[in-house]
Amino acid sequence: MASSDSDSDSEAPPMLVPLSRSAIPVTLLTGCLGAGKTTLLSHLIKNAPPGYRIAVLVNELGASEAIEAEFYVGHASRRNEGDDGSGRVAGGDAMVPMPQSVMRARGGADGTNAASASSLKSSTPDWVELPNGCLCCTAKSEYVQLLENIVRTQPGKYHHVVVETTGVADPGPAIEALWTDEGMEACVFLAGVVTVVDAVHLLGQYREKRQNLNRKRAGASAEADEPAREAVLQVAFADHVIVNKCETAGDASTAEAEEAVRRINSAATLERADRCVVDVKRLLELRALDGDGAARAAASASSSSSAPGADESPSSSAHFGGVNTVAVDVSGVRTESAVRAWAESLLWGEQVGCEIYRLKAVFAICADADGVSSSPPRRVMLQAVGQLYELTDGGLWPDANLSASDYRSRVVAIGRRVRRTKLLEGLL
Ligand SMILES: Nc1nc2c(ncn2[C@@H]2O[C@H](COP(=O)(O)OP(=O)(O)OP(=O)(O)O)[C@@H](O)[C@H]2O)c(=O)[nH]1
C-alpha cells in the first residue's frame, strides 16, 4: 500500500525498487582475538564491487559486565570517490576499522539507549539501534530483529550483512539463530560461516588447551580452557577458513596450522592469506548452507577423514578436545523416512556418545516422506547445525542407469568424539 505520511513524501520521487528482491546474504565472521577479523572486514569493504554495500555488525563481550555493541557501515563505493571510507584504514601496520562511519551505543539497563540513539539518528541515517546483550547467549531475538531492521527498514540499501562475533564466542548459537528464524527467511539468509585463524598463534592456542586440561585435571577451574575450546569450535563450525598471517608464520608453521584446521574440520574450504587479502568475490558469493553447499562440502571433505580407523587414532583429535571430522560413503538407496530417523537419532539421541556440530550429506532417496517412490532415486542433501537439520531436494540422481547398490551416498560429520561406527549405525 502506498504511504502518504506527509506532503514531502508525496513530492518525493518513487522509492527505487531493488533490482533483486531476493533475500540478502548474511555471513557470520568468527576468529580468535587478534586473528585478523577487523583486517578482513576492512579488506572486504574496500574491495567489494563498486556500489555493493555491506552492513557490518560487531558484537563484543567487554572485560566488564557491560556489553559493547557497534555497528559499522561500509560504503564500498567511496573508494571510487577518492576516499576509502575510513580516512585511516589503508596502509601502515595498525589497521583501524572504518572509523568515519562507526556508530556506537551502550545499551541501558532496559536494553535501549533512546537518547544516544536519537542523537545519532539525527546525525546519520545509518543508525540501527542494538539493544544491550550478548549476541551469542542472551540476545538471540534482538540480534535477529536487528538484522531484520537493517534489511527491512532500508530496502535495497545493503547487498550483504557481515556479523562479526566476539573473539571468544562459541558461534553455534548464533548460527542456529540465523539459520532457523522463520521470520527472517523472507529477507535474509545465512550464507556461511567464515573463520579467521592466526597461523602464528593457532597451534599455541591448542597447546595451551592441553596444558589447561592438565591443570584442570589437577584441580584448576573449569573455565581455564575456555578460549582454546572456543578456538576449536570456531574452526569446527566454519564453512570457510582463512589461515592468516602466513608470511609472518613462515611455511612450516602455516602448513602445521592448515593441518590442524583440516583435522578439526576437513569439510571447510581453506584459504591462506596475509593481512586477510583474500578473494573478495569468493567470500561474498559463499553459499554454504544450502543443498548445493552441503553437496560440495561432502564431496570435498578430505580422504584422510574417511579412512577407516582415522577417527580412532589417538593423534587425530586429542589435541583439539576430541573435535574431528569423519566422512563415510555408503552404497544403495534409502527412504527419506529412514534418513530422517537416522539424522534424528544421531543429532537428538541421548546415548549417542558424540556431539555433532555440523553434518553435511548427500543421499540417494528412493521414496519421499509420503512413501512416493522415485526411480531413478532423488538426490537429497542434508545440512545440520547443532541439533537442527534440513533436507533439500536436488532433483533426480544424474546417473539413471545404475543398479541400486551402485548409488553412493556420502556423509560428513564434524563434532566431538565422532566415530565412523556411530555414523554408519542406521545407514547400513
Ligand atoms: N603480521 C601480521 N599482522 C597482521 C596480519 N593481519 C592482521 N594483522 C595485525 O594483527 C592485529 C590484529 O588484527 P585485527 O584485524 O584487529 O584482529 P581481530 O581478529 O579483529 O582482533 P579482535 O578484534 O581483538 O578480536 C592488528 O595489529 C593487525 O594489523 C598479518 O597477516 N600479518
From TrEMBL:
The keyword Chaperone applies. Residues 103-125 are annotated as: Disordered. It holds the Pfam family cobW. The keyword Nucleotide-binding applies. One of its GO terms (cellular component) is cytoplasm. Residues 113-125 have a biased composition (Polar residues). Residues 25-69, 118-269 form the CobW/HypB/UreG nucleotide-binding domain. Keywords: Chaperone, GTP-binding, Hydrolase, Nucleotide-binding, Zinc. Residues 329-427 form the CobW C-terminal domain. It catalyses: GTP + H2O = GDP + phosphate + H(+). Gene3D superfamilies: CobW-like, C-terminal domain, P-loop containing nucleotide triphosphate hydrolases. One of its GO terms (molecular function) is hydrolase activity. Signal peptide: none annotated. Belongs to the SIMIBI class G3E GTPase family. ZNG1 subfamily. PANTHER family: COBW-RELATED (PTHR13748), ZINC-REGULATED GTPASE METALLOPROTEIN ACTIVATOR 1A-RELATED (PTHR13748:SF31). This is CobW/HypB/UreG nucleotide-binding domain-containing protein. It comes from Pycnococcus provasolii. The lineage of its organism: Eukaryota, Viridiplantae, Chlorophyta, Pseudoscourfieldiophyceae, Pseudoscourfieldiales.
